[in-house]
Every structure is written in structure tokens, then in C-alpha cells.
């Protein structure tokens, strides 16, 4: 966990044999956020691949929708209408030269390619809604007092709305999944500088260390995944010997 919070509300999954990685962040300030993120990863951890990749992705979406209802039922039974139990989630699925990212909330996915790091998810936040409406300049978003107010999460609404992004995998791509505890402490430019080594073990260690030095007011979870492609095969692999790591502090 970070240097301030006593309870770690972050959770994660690494299942490279399925091409599945997940980061979930229990909603800070709400009751039982750690339980919420645990329920999300526990539900996804037992999934297996059957049928097509699209069927597997749909299974993930269905599982998140079921977990959404369970969290709402738990919140009502424990706290009535006074509180909410919720968790953000960001999911990376890699299969057959393609990737899919699913997310709800402000846990992020980044993609490092050709020397550049891009945030490929867009935070579901009140501030981003203001930016989209033209009421707030983009360069003022990060420092806005409502920057931490999210508009989507597992357990937050009756109907779960998951965003999806699909793309092609390239050898050497590095994905970073992280809870907002990381980008609260480090700017995107500061995060990018650690990717010049292209060694995901070193990347994660440096990211976590740097965030902790800043004070780490929130829990920090980061998963870095490097893609290795075999040009002689039609399918993609992330071999067991390739470097992948996750850190929770």
C-alpha cells in the first residue's frame, strides 16, 4: 500500500497463459473498497478460455456485470442507501495478434510503442466530462479539485457501462496497467522516461520507487506487459520467459 492508507484497496490479476491482466481499485472514501476490488478480481480469476476470443471477452463483460449487481446488493444490505461499494477496473486481453482493453473508472492503460508512451484509456471522471463539454481546458484537468470524482465503476450504477478499445499487437509493445495512485504522483512525461530501458522489471521497480518517494498518498498497483512476437507464426505469444511484473505497495 502507499505511505498513508492503512487498507490496500487495490487488487490485480496476472494470467499470461490466458492473455489476461487486470487492475482493480476499490473506491477510496467509500465503505469496503478493498472488498469491492477483491470481488472483481476473484470473479475474473476463475475464468477459462473456451470458444473464440470474442466469447472470452464477452465472458469477462458478463462477469463484471454480475459482480456489479452483487456489489450493489451487498452495499444495500450492509449500509442501506447511505453508501456505495465500488471498484474501478482496467482489463487487458491479448490473443492472436490483437489486444482488447476494457475499463470502467480511472484505473488506466498505457501503451509504449516506438519510443512514445500514450494513455489509451480515458478516465471516466467528472473532470473529463467538463473537458468534453468545453467547460474546462484539458491542461487544467489534472489540477482540478474534482479530478478524483469518477463517473463509472463496478457497483456504482444499476447498469454497468464498460468502455472497450481494440488494436493490433506489435513486437516490443509494452502495456502498463495502473491504479490512479501512480498517476497521482507521476505525470505521463515522468512515467514515460522509465520506459527507455524496455525492461518491464526495471520499469515497475522504478515507477513504484519514484511514486513512494513522492509520498504515495494512495495505493499503487502497476502491471507492465511486454509483447514478444514470433514472426514465423501466425499467432502471437507472450512467452513464459518474457519479462512481466506487477507490484502492489
Automatic annotation (TrEMBL):
Sequence ranges assigned to domain PPM-type phosphatase in this UniProt record: 1-227
SMART domains documented for this protein: PP2C_SIG (SM00331), PP2Cc (SM00332)
Stored PANTHER family: PROTEIN PHOSPHATASE (PTHR47992)
Protein name: Serine/threonine phosphatase PppA
Lineage: Bacteria, Pseudomonadati, Pseudomonadota, Gammaproteobacteria, Kangiellales
Amino acid at each position: 500500500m502507499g505511505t498513508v492508507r492503512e487498507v490496500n484497496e487495490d487488487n490485480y490479476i496476472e494470467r499470461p497463459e490466458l492473455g489476461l491482466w487486470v487492475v482493480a481499485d476499490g473506491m477510496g472514501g467509500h465503505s469496503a473498497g478493498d472488498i469491492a476490488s477483491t470481488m472483481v478480481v476473484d470473479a475474473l480469476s476463475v475464468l477459462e478460455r473456451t470458444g473464440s476470443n470474442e466469447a472470452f471477452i464477452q465472458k469477462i463483460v458478463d462477469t463484471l456485470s454480475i459482480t456489479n449487481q452483487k456489489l450493489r446488493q451487498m452495499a444495500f444490505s450492509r449500509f442501506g442507501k447511505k453508501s456505495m461499494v465500488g471498484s474501478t477496473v482496467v482489463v487487458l486481453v491479448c490473443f492472436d495478434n490483437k489486444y482488447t482493453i476494457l475499463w470502467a473508472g480511472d484505473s488506466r492503460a498505457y501503451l509504449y510503442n516506438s519510443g512514445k508512451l500514450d494513455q489509451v484509456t480515458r478516465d471516466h471522471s467528472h473532470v473529463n466530462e467538463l473537458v468534453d463539454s468545453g467547460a474546462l481546458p484539458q491542461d487544467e484537468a489534472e489540477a482540478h479539485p474534482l479530478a478524483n470524482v469518477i463517473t463509472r465503476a463496478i457497483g456504482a450504477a444499476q447498469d454497468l457501462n464498460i468502455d472497450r478499445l481494440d488494436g493490433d499487437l506489435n513486437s516490443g509493445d509494452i502495456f502498463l496497467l495502473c491504479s490512479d495512485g501512480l498517476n497521482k504522483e507521476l505525470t505521463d512525461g515522468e512515467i514515460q522516461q522509465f520506459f527507455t530501458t524496455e525492461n518491464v522489471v526495471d520499469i515497475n521497480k522504478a515507477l513504484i520507487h519514484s511514486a513512494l518517494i513522492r509520498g504515495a498518498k494512495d495505493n499503487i498497483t502497476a502491471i507492465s506487459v511486454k509483447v514478444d512476437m514470433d514472426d514465423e507464426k501466425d499467432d502471437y505469444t507472450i512467452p513464459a520467459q518474457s519479462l512481466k511484473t506487477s507490484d502492489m505497495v
